[in-house]
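Much of what follows relies on a compact textual record of a protein's fold. A complete example follows; check for yourself that the lines match position by position.
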Amino acid sequence: MAWGTELWDQFENLDKHTQWGIDFLERYAKFVKERLEIEQTYAKQLRNLVKKYCPKRSKDDEPRFSSCLSFYSILNELNDYAGQREVVAEEMGHNVYGELMRYSQDLKSERKHHLQEGRKAQQYLDQCWKHMDNSKKKFERECKEAEKSQISYDRLDNDINATKSEVEKAKSQLYLRTHSADESKNEYAAQLQNFNGEQWKHFNVAIPQIFKNLQDMDERRTVKLGETYRSFADVERRVVPIISKCLEGMVTAAKAVDQRKDSAIVVESFKSGFEPPGDFPFEDYSQNLSRTGSDNTISTPKNEGVVKPDPKHSISKAAKNKLWLFGKKPKAPSLEDFSHLPPEQRRKRLQARIDELSKELQKEVDQRDALNKMKDVYEKNPQMGDPQSLQPKISETMCNMEKLRSEIHKNEEWVKGNGTDSLIRLFSPPSSSPLLSPEGSYTDDPSQEHRSPPHQPDPRQAHQPDEFDDEFDDDDPLPVLGHCKALYSFDGQNEGTLLMKEDDVLYIIEEDKGDGWTRARKQSGEEGYVPTSYVEIAMEKNSKGAVTYI
């Protein structure tokens, strides 16, 4: 079945189908590539295995046992087997993968050419239709104008009060309009005839030929896939005889193992040639001693007791370092700002991180400069590449630079606050991590006023219940000492803290005691602690004077 006649109106679907065909071919090519990479890795690992277990001594030092010789023969055969796997990978890469990638590029070029021809034909037909439609609309306008002129002329001709000049003028106008309508009619008829002819050529000649070319291309792609499927199997089948010989060699080596021969070699290697020792004779040392019994009685000394050596008791050494129940003692959790370390160590760690981030930032800057130079070259020489194709990479590089600058700024702020941060603890026992006190400063610049504070309290650190829970249980509310305005938003997720938004106005019921926190109350009556550096505080005159804290 021909695409040109059966699918004359399915240009977009054929566009998608041919693209799918090329994508499928490239997907199969990717499969072949991964398969040959597996073969290469497998062959490499086999060769490393053979190298690991091959004898490293001279032949004179090698044992002559048949089991060892057979094992070395198996290693040689396995090395040859690895070579055949390399042959499989090489032929797959050249005969299958390489051929598929070259053919894929050819298909892309051919498909692009056919689709461009189809779009040009469609654009030309649309242009013809547009000319025809414009001439049709012009003919319609001219006819309406001629009708208006006819009505005007008839009205003046029947009007006895109309002058002769007015009638002549209306008659002349009618003639001009009628003549224009006739010309528009002829132009519309010509454009319509031309469009009908071009439309017939489009759907009966141009499009069928283009679709036929696309059909031939797609069928050739299908045939090519079948050929590469067969080549994929042929590559494996060509090495099967050699692999079979390798396996047969391994079987032969296994059959060559002879236990009697190996036993004979052991005897030949370690036999001394001496005869086994005979019985030891009895030696009598009591001939010169006086006998209390019969002379014919041979008395032998009796062992009155055997002194047994003291057994050696092995004394185990005590472990120097005690281990925890399930292994080593776990390390303290490492925080991002290294606040669990002493000040000097923390400063060094933060400075090292800043240096590392600075190097990464410099790399991104160099990459941005290189991309900008390349973009300038493309703009001056468009044939070398599209400048807009580099814009996504440039934008990504700029985004990475902003992230790195933000990280560097954050770590620099931590370094600046290192002297005081190590002394502050928020509602936590001595073993917990230190809390970073906010150090944001007020500025008159509106663009800087609403920035997030440089250090926000760690939400993972909760307060001690004995310090605050009892205070919130008081029945009598605390008196108002002043009021404050929130400079930043605070989530207040920890127990005992108060949620506030930027520009919220709160009542002060307890001043900062040096820990960086102020107790406040909302107009709704809700109370809690907020960071002192997050608010602008104004105390009442009757308390401690009008003092403002930022």
